[in-house]
Automatic annotation (TrEMBL):
UniProt cross-references to Pfam families, sorted A to Z: GreA_GreB (PF01272), Rnk_N (PF14760)
Coiled coil: none
Matching PANTHER family: REGULATOR OF NUCLEOSIDE DIPHOSPHATE KINASE, TRANSCRIPTION ELONGATION FACTOR GREA
Alphabetized InterPro entries for the sequence: GreA/GreB_C_sf, Rnk_N, Tscrpt_elong_fac_GreA/B_C, Tscrpt_elong_fac_GreA/B_fam
Domain Transcription elongation factor GreA/GreB C-terminal: 59-132
Name of the protein this chain belongs to: Nucleoside diphosphate kinase regulator
Regulator of nucleoside diphosphate kinase N-terminal domain sequence ranges: 11-50
Lineage: Bacteria, Pseudomonadati, Pseudomonadota, Alphaproteobacteria, Hyphomicrobiales
Species of provenance: Rhodoplanes elegans
A GO term, aspect molecular function: RNA polymerase binding
GO biological process: DNA-templated transcription elongation; regulation of DNA-templated transcription elongation
């Protein structure tokens, strides 16, 4: 089973320098435990533009930001906070970047859509409806 990128073109994404460094460490540390998602996350990190230190990144999904997105397959809208794995709590709406949806969300901005193939081979797509920075969040 592998989490693959869909055949559709990937939207441009951006990461804050500190997020990129920590995400690279997380991807590397999880290749043996969660190889499919770690590989997907590593590919997303590699293709991301790194924001300059003076760029706030408020328009992009960053670690600790609240994201409202629509699942294009089901039409369902969800609002979640993207967090590092140790802070994940699905019941509180905090999803880990080390999940297929979390890895897909990272670096996107409002209005962008991304598609990927699930481990079961299903094509999925989501669209970012809103991004809210939460500077106080312990991402």
């Amino acid at each position: 089973m592998s989490t693959q990128t869909s055949t559709q073109p990937l939207p441009p994404i951006a990461l804050r320098p500190d997020d990129r460094a920590k995400l690279e460490q997380i991807a590397q540390a999880n290749f043996s435990r969660n190889p499919d998602t770690a590989d997907y996350l590593a590919r997303e990190i590699e293709r991301a533009r790194v924001l300059a230190p003076d760029e706030a990144g408020r328009d992009f999904v960053t670690m600790g930001s609240w994201v409202t997105f629509r699942d294009e397959t089901t039409g369902r809208t969800r609002r979640v906070m993207l967090v590092y794995p140790e802070h994940a709590d699905v019941s509180a709406g905090r999803i880990s970047v080390l999940t297929p949806i979390g890895a897909a969300l990272v670096g996107l901005s409002k209005g962008q859509s991304i598609a990927w193939t699930t481990p079961s081979g299903e094509e999925r797509s989501l669209t970012i409806l809103e991004v809210e920075a939460d500077d106080a969040a312990a991402a």
